[in-house]
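Worked problem 6 (solution included).
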Amino acid sequence: MRRFARTKLWALAGTAAVALCLAAPSAMAGKADDTLNIAWDVEVPNVNMYFDTSRNGVIIAHHVWDALIWRDPASGDFKPLLATAWNIVDDKTIELDIRQGVKFHNGDPMTADDVVYTYNYLAKPDNGILNRNYTSWIDKAEKIGDAKVRITAKNTNPLILLYMGEIGIYPQKYYEEVGPEGMGTKPVGTGPYKITEVDPGKRLVFEAFEDYYDSPKGQPKIKNIVQRTIPEMNTQVVELASGRLNWIWRVAQDQADRLTKSGRVEVINANTMRVGYLQLNAAKGPEDSPLRKQKVRQAINHAINLDGIVKNLVRGSSQIIHSACYPEQFGCTDDVQKYPYDVAKAKALLAEAGYPNGFSTVLYAYRDRSHNEAIMSDLAAVGIKAELRYGQYAATRDALRKGEVPIGSLTWGSNSIPDVDAILPVFFGGLPDDLSQDEEVQALLVEGKSTLDQDKRKAAYKKALQKIAEQAYWVPTWTYTTNYAISNDLDFKPTADEIPRFWTASWK
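Solution. The predicted structure is:
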């Protein structure tokens, strides 16, 4: 009881502090001196991008280091960045023309030699880097002209272009002089912002790079960015409300509601790449399991009132999805069989499957209890009585892989990778999380993964998604959102990959 009382008092104190700040005059920090003040709750262990795997490290990297290729978050198209053009020689080889006239933050010119050095450094197995998600595919890089390089992959990987868009180019001369530690304290890149101050774990200062080239990403519009690490969200909210911060994110809904009511702070509820789904055990459960039958799985899809749950519980800008992927991922399609909410249809399908009175089952979940209780209520309305097993994610995942989960309510964020290869092979490619074990779908996913031809990939993934929907292996539910809170005088547009691109922000 005492612990609950302390927690409640702390929450009330935080609410009072926010109310006091909202009533106080704003300090109007930011616009007056062209400095964007931002905060996040986790410290950055290392600003050397290859020695930090955190979300904040990714954000820093996109501002400080440009890559050869840029994926336009608006269109999803790959565009030239530090490369002006590229040619896919074969499924393992890419040749690129390197942009001329680009400078590093220390004034040195960026050349093809820096590109070759960066890629070959990342390919070394003993380089000690932590961020291998985007680099493990590299075999070697070669200079084949004054401004031309050839990059070879170890194996065919459909995400090579995407990964190349995450590999920042390092200055060979500078990096050989200072090494990983020096790059972690005085980073040098070619991006729209350079870092001028590093106070580890506390504060970073960015300044717009005056010599930034004519980049497809656009020129930075705000001169300075000051990032502070503030672990407590209540403190962040107070700082924003008082005008000492201009931007925070991942704000809880109750705090977001209070900030919105103040009229002096804008709250943007934006989609993320995380999707929700019910995974139906079509192959790994007992042979007499009702979930083995297609019509039962289709009945479950028809039984759930997704529109009502999203409007009343999920809220925000969440969108209902019909396919087993995030809508903006490459290869995702909505051209699949859909299951509108229809209680009568669900009951009819259950009867046809041999369950006119329904059946009992178990639903495993690890988050969003109220959402899952609403789903269970909908299932009960058609005769499916589900017992909720609510626990930790790891325990839920382990039970699912053992085949013990009839219905699992889960979410997946694809590591913010905007390609269906980051979701479909995990759940339908024959791996431990695959509860359908559909060999036709698995073959289509292999086909999509075995070429860099984007049209062939789309065709294979579309067939796979249509088969997944037809067989009702999943109940795709909705996209998840996050709240950004920003000063009223700031123009900022979030993207679903949760990488804030501050060089696109401006003052109103």
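Discussion: DSSP finds 15 helices and 18 strands in the chain.
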